[in-house]
Amino acid sequence: MKKEKNTEILSPGARVVRWVLSIILMIYTGITIFALSITVMDSLKSKGDIVTNFVGFPKQLTMESYFRVLKEANLLLYLKNSVVLTVGGTLGCILLAGLTAYGISRFDFKGKNFLSGYFLMGMMVPVQVSVLPLFLILKRIGLLNNIFGMMLVYASGISMACFIFQKFFHTIPVALEESARIDGAGDFRIFFQIIAPLCKPVVMTVALITAISQWNDFYMPMVLLGKKTSNTLTLVIYQYIGQFTKYMSESMAAVVITLIPVIVLYFLFSSKIVEGLTGGAVKG
Amino acid sequence: MNWKKTVSFICAVSVMGVSLAGCGDNSQSTKGKGNADGESKENDGGVSGTLTIWEHGYGFEASLQQIIEGFQKKYQDVEVEYEIKDGDNYYSLLSTAIQSGEGPDIFWTNGTATANMKDYVSNEVCMDLTDKVDYSLFGEDAMKLTEVDGKNYSVPWLTMDTRAVYYNKDIFEENGWEVPEKFSEFEELLEKIKKAGYTPISLSGVNVYSLLFTFEPILSAMDVEYTKGLSDYSVKATDKPAADALNKMLEWADKGYFGDNWLGVADNNAQTLAFTSGEAVMDIAGSWEAATISENNPDLNYGAFEIPSEEGIRGMVGTPANGFSVNTATENEAAAVAFMNYCASLDAQTVWVQSQGAVSASDEIEASTEIAKEISESGAGNIYTSWQSVLVNHSTDGTAVSLWDEDFTKIFSGDITVEEFMDNISKVMQ
Amino acid sequence: MNKRHKQVKFILPGFIFYTCFIILPIIYVFYLSFFQWSGLGEMKFNGIQNFVTIFTDERFSPVFFNALWNNIKYLLCVWLIITPFQYLMAYLFFIKIPAYKYLKFMIFMPYVISTTIISFFATLIFNPNIGFLNKFLEAVGLEHLQGAWFGDPNWAFKLMILLILWQGAGSGVMIFYSNFMDISKDVMEASRIDGCTEWQRFTRILVPLSLPSCASVITMSTIWALALFDLPFILGGAKGGVSGSLDFVNLVFYRYTFGSALNGKSEIGFGASICVVMFAVMLIITTIQNKVLKKFEYDN
Questions:
Q1: Residue A146 belongs to what domain range?
Q2: Does A205 lie at the interface with C, CB-CB under 8 angstroms?
Q3: Is residue B197 domain-shared with residue B248, that is, in the same domain?
Q4: Residue at a domain's end among B360, B382, B414
Q5: Are B300 and B398 members of one domain?
Q6: Averaged confidence pLDDT in chain C
Q7: Pairwise CA distance, residues A209 & A203, whole Å
Q8: How confident is the model over A87-131, as pLDDT tens digits?
Q9: Which chain A residues contact residue B58 at CB under 8 A?
Q10: B393 interfaces chain A, CB cutoff of 8 Å
Q11: A169 and A42, same structural domain?
Q12: Is B28 within a domain?
């Protein structure tokens, strides 16, 4: 049963302020709508049309650029690769980060702060340079040009997720675990059955952000998944975006194509983010 | 304390495990490959095996695919895989892979146009192809790219990488403008275009290469003798004509010939777009840009010419392009050399030049596009050495080109003067 | 079972993977920073020479410090403009201002559009020749206001901040928002019954309660600010814009490592040493910042 928060009584003044803010923001989001609609419209223009007419409506609608982008013979394979990689990488990352963050924030031990900093270091070196040794490591363990290898790399990039989770776990009252422990629940059971459901909004948000960045990443796959059979959709599509001037309408189509799954993902996750609220309210 | 030990122990073990597993995996996979290769070799008695090729940009993918197709018609038993490593760290990645013994069998370099291939040769990474490949197709210019200490290490592509002035034919016709025959006419034309309310030349003020590809043709037009002298280094790169050409560009910038606020043109894409959309009437850029311009706006009616000198002499600044080299560590030398020989054949070269839509550097190959033919006609067979390649090849300590790279844009943003720039360069030139 | 070592089984899996795939490469980078090495052939041990070059070389060190200064300037913008903006957005969604679902989606949306397309839009708007900002100014007779925008050192940095505000703020908003969602509703409810005004609820309850979890966003924004690369790269080119106005340390690293800017060939050893210096800077700033943020955390 959902409790509607909007039922609260607001003073007329507050209500006006809210409306004003909302309208200002709506105008602000106009920029995004503008950008998105240009992208969609441009993807439906012919090549000559797009150059002389960036902003306007298409003179003639054509799906040509979509066909050109999607003509790749192995598109389904690339799509599968992308999905497997993103799903596996995100799940792995969230799981590893969740466990690690729980271990660090919920137990007292020496070196806690050091460890917390240690897990943050991963964000401090540019990927362009760390990708070189990564290439060697994957080659050594025979996972270069292998989706699973790339997935491992993504799953290991837990810096951001781990850090956010750590801070978050701090805010959960210890009493919850204590009572479960008295009931005889094991550590992992406590984590998965009591802590994890409480964190749904944060977990889902971090998962969303992680998934999007993995889905959109073309740089690491380009270096580490060079072989055609292990390419991802983003990588194949990047060939157009990377030669933007040459393939302008195709690039726009490519962007729209990669945007669709991301938008689906967003709605899938964002309902969960709200769900977490009611889930969290059960405590007490 | 205890957990620390446990953790560090497990960490150490896992790292060792990873590297050990790697060794095992490695030897196994190569063995497996070797066996398979061996068998097919015995059956066919011909060239077979697997080749891996690294190419440096997506723009070459389609051409490479055609080359591989052609090659496989001749050598059916050779499996060819390629990987495109687009972006600036191509060389770092390649070096890393080669250093670790995991490099591709065949890879692209700039040849002697940059320092990389020389570096590879001195580290014995590039196979000496002098006696293995039939180079009869290539002229002196192309061979220069492949040669280090008298030996040849790569196979060039006979695409002429030059610079050209692209112009919008429709706007020219509307206003009754003609392709200039003399340098002074060119300058007058710029003034006329400016007066007519267009941007005369589209140029990015913050991209070194965009600036270079405009600077070099202007230099060659302003002083033909000097530009010719660059090829045997009988003149210095920092001599007065070079400074004059830079000052000329600054003068044009002041007059607004590159558009007002041209420093805000962020990159080559923006430069090209201003031309293809008809905002700018001309674009001075690499000959390979023709493919992009045509693809970007198929409706654009445009042509190309080389800037004439005051005496009416035109020429092309540039060289053929370099292609692939063979990794000395390749396990399949026979197939690799066969591939290189195929690349050196007229068939392959024709396919490459035509699929790239490039200017042909050989009489035997006809360019596939009108614009490419127009460029080589306008060039009239005069080939000039690139000013920048002189910096690469005649610097005392190899730093001249990096000085240029760092400082060239600063001239145009007014952070340093032309004299300061030339002084800095001349200190590290022979 | 030793109760004291319970954390090990939680931390270990993450620790192993993270160490193998993330930390090992970083260690390798540290190792490289003591060598002069182009990526191939003999690695010449260089001691601390690379670092000496960074700080004392008369050509390089001004470039480096200019870039570092830009990073710091940007960091200040993150602290004073971008983070408060994100926090405020998240708060507005939390109190469910009208149409908040739509607004939340739209604010987040630019985050998923690839940076290449962002650069195209930047060209479309700000390009002095074809961009419609200048065209618009011309059309309304304000030609004297036309500018080079990203090519103008006075404008470039400010415009970049605006663009980042639009494009990059989404993820932070989402994290703040999800943190708010976990604040017990009972507390908020109780406060209203007690007759708190909206402003009081914001400053007395929401801000203190959300501070610990928000500390993580701030810490990470700080690291991201010091590692900024993508947008300045596409907006001002690898050279860091006109007169270095859009030059950041990672751009310097990039062009000296891959772009042959140092001695005619790629110089991985030197590039690595730039990374190491930046790593140290990040470590120092985040440590100090954490100390400060901790104070807030324990106060409530």
A1: 66-281
A2: yes
A3: yes
A4: B360
A5: yes
A6: 85
A7: 10
A8: 999 999 999 999 999 999 888 888 888 998 899 999 888 888 888
A9: 239, 242-243
A10: no
A11: no
A12: no
Enter the DSSP assignment of C5: G
- Total domains present in chain A: 2
Do A147 and A223 reside in the same domain of the chain? yes
Q: Does A61 touch chain C (CB under 8 A)?
A: no
Any B CB within 8 A of A248 CB:
yes
Asked if B73 and B118 sit in the same domain, the reply is: yes
| pLDDT tens by residue, C86-131 | 999 998 998 888 888 899 888 888 888 777 677 777 877 888 877 8
- ipTM at complex level: 0.85
Low-confidence ranges of chain C (pLDDT < 50): 1-2, 261-263, 299-300
Q: What is the mean pLDDT of each run of 10 residues along chain B (430 residues)?
A: 45 42 36 38 62 91 94 93 85 85 91 86 92 93 91 94 95 95 96 94 91 95 94 91 96 93 87 91 94 91 95 91 94 94 95 93 90 91 90 84 88 94 92
Q: Across the strands, what pairs with B167?
A: B282, B303
Give the residue among B332, B320, B283 at the shortest CA–CA distance from B49.
B332
CB proximity C17 to A under 8 Å: yes
Interchain CB contact of B11 with C (< 8 Å): yes
The encoded tokens of residue A1 equal 């049963």
Other CB atoms within 10 A of residue C278 CB: 24
Could you report the per-residue pLDDT of B311-370, keeping only the tens digit for each? Answer: 999 999 988 999 999 999 999 999 999 999 999 999 999 999 999 999 999 889 999 999
Interface check for B413 against chain A (CB to CB < 8 A): the answer is: no
**Which 3 state secondary structure label does DSSP give B84?**
strand
**B311 within a domain of the structure (yes/no):** yes
Q: What is the CA radius of gyration of chain C?
A: 23
The Cα B162–Cα B317 span in angstroms is 5
Beta-carbon separation of B88 and C151 below 8 A? no
Q: Residues of B numbered 335-394 whose beta carbons fall under 8 angstroms of chain C's beta carbons: which are they? A: 392
**Minimal Cβ distance to C261: which of B125, B398, B406:** B406
Are residue A172 and residue A254 in the same domain, yes or no?
yes
Of A96, A204, A258, the CB nearest to C13: A96
Nearest residue to A85 (alpha-carbon basis) of A146, A6, A23, A19: A146
Q: Which one of B265, B402, B405 has the shortest CB-CB distance to C128?
A: B265
Residue B365 DSSP symbol: S
C105 CA: distance to closest CA in chain B (Å): 30
B249 and B331 fall within a common domain: no
CB contact set of C295 (below 8 Å; sequence gap of 6+):
none
Residue C4's pLDDT is 60
Domain count, chain B: 2
Considering just the CA atoms, what is the radius of gyration of chain B in Å? 25
Listed by number, the residues of chain B in 92-131 with a beta carbon closer than 8 Å to a beta carbon of chain C are 92, 95-96, 98-99, 114-116, 119-120, 122-123, 125
Residues A21 and A153 in one domain: no
A137, A193: one domain:
yes
Residues B411 and B336 in one domain: no
pTM for the full model? 0.86
Instruction: Answer yes or no: do B110 and B235 share one domain.
Output: no
- Whether B349 and B380 share a structural domain: no
Host domain of residue B137: 47-159+321-360
DSSP state letters, B335-361: HHHHHHHHHTSHHHHHHHHHHHTPEES
> Measured between CA atoms, how close is B368 to chain C, in angstroms?
30
DSSP B181: S
